[in-house]
From TrEMBL:
Keyword Magnesium: yes
Molecular-function GO terms, alphabetical: dihydropteroate synthase activity; metal ion binding
Reactions that this protein is recorded to catalyse: (7,8-dihydropterin-6-yl)methyl diphosphate + 4-aminobenzoate = 7,8-dihydropteroate + diphosphate
PROSITE patterns xrefs: DHPS_1, DHPS_2, PTERIN_BINDING
Annotated GO CC locations: cytosol
The protein's name: dihydropteroate synthase
Domain Pterin-binding: 17-144
Length: 144
């Protein structure tokens, strides 16, 4: 097993456990209750997580809590792309995109994300093709 993975030019060291800082920019997040929906609040929270030792930042624009409403693709893009662009220019740690949507994956990687985090294990329409085309590391959720 490699000791490091390349996340779009940013290295993730796998010789030790890694801390993923979660940045949910949704009003209905189960983990933070929508505290970081605003752009500046979200950026500041990401900066704080990196300063406190996060090895990577995971940006999500659609809640995955049970019963959460589906977010239209454009709304998800509007939530995550500006943050990924800003974080990519500002922090040295890898950035991941937490999404199940193929177009969000594509645009997020283009904006600077170096890893895809898909709780639907690439089962959404076009997700597998997008992941193959983008050739970045992928985190998949196991489901039975």
């Amino acid at each position: 097993m490699p000791h490091r993975i390349d996340c779009a030019g940013r290295s993730l060291d796998l010789r030790r456990p890694c801390v993923m800082g979660i940045l949910n920019v949704t009003p209905d997040s189960f983990s933070d209750g929508g505290d970081f929906l605003g752009y500046e609040d979200a950026l500041q929270h990401a900066r704080q997580m990196v300063a406190e030792g996060a090895d990577m930042i995971d940006v999500g624009g659609e809640s995955t809590r049970p019963g959460a409403a589906v977010v239209p693709e454009q709304q998800e893009l509007d939530r995550v792309i500006p943050l990924i662009e800003a974080l990519s220019a500002e922090v040295a740690v890898p950035i991941s995109i937490d999404t199940t949507k193929a177009q969000v994956m594509r645009e997020a990687v283009s904006a600077g994300a170096g890893l895809i985090n898909d709780v639907n294990a690439l089962r959404s329409e076009g997700a597998l093709s997008a992941a193959a085309d983008l050739a970045v590391p992928i985190c998949l959720m196991h489901r039975q």
